[in-house]
Amino acid sequence: MRLPLALAPLLLLCTAAASADYGSHPKAATLLERLRQEHGFSAAELDSVRAALSEAQRLPQLVEMEQKAPERTETWTRYSSRIDQSRIDGGVAVLRDQQPFLDRAEEEFGVPPAVIAAILGIETRYGRITGNIRVLDALATQGFEHPTRSAFFASELEHFFVFCRDFRRDPAAIKGSYAGAMGAAQFMPSNYRRLSLDYDGENGRDLWTLPDAVGSIGHYFMRYRPSQAWRRGEPLIIPARLLAPLPAGTEVNGKATAYNAGALLRAGWLAADVDLPPDTPVGIIQLPLDDGSQEYWLALHNFYTVMTYNPRTFYAMAVAQLAQRIQQRLAAEAR
Questions:
Q1: 144 and 249 inside one domain
Q2: Which parts of the sequence belong to the Transglycosylase SLT domain (predicted)?
Q3: Which of 20, 124, 218, 334 is the most exposed place for a label (fewest CB within 10 A)?
């Protein structure tokens, strides 16, 4: 019997999983001591953590999945296929179904409803696909074994156990992404603890529900990194055209604005399709296409705010363009 392609990665994970007994791993002692000292875990709670670590499954394929994420390996032509009709339709539906919560989030945090919807659409298709990998396995494998990012994942594993204690969740029962992100909003455990909100007043902070995910995304964009907080009313991207080859050393696809619009446009390298105040901070976005050409945009402050959610240019561009398409669809239907 031939398996559907969508099931193949899950079968690979299931067949390759093996008990690792991370409870006896040398790094486990450091984790347990931090849980005791920094978070006040009792002896009984630490025993529960040891038991969970001992039962965690080793999934080394997750390291390869993280290192070969689509944002790292695809062209923009391929990656942008995520901005498909079903995501546009789903975004319009979410804007209607969750309107009271989206309107409240915009009022409180300034983040437009279409942008919050686009995050949900790119992350989990509006809460329909939140991940089928045990978060315990994902974070333990990468926290103890990732060759370059073990410190990050070990920290998230620590926060995961605190989350499970404080939210009264079974560590072995929670499923999420290969990186350990959870819920419709795909928050890592540290951000779940710090930035999630109970937006509907029901059952605490539950990011598997869309109202709580909506409010938490808006809250994230305002509070995650204050210096990069969302700026109300400002766009994310402006279309641009290349007029002359960019000089060697020109920063493209960076993590923050690197130029001001006036100086950049006076240099004659790019032309923007929208007039910007000369002192507007911007970055240059260069998107590789399948035919070998490049697509150019100017990115503004809020584009880089989206990159705090996922620090990949393609991801932020997909969110920005999906939000535009959702908004365009709403405007067309209102005519």
A1: no
A2: 29-324
A3: 334
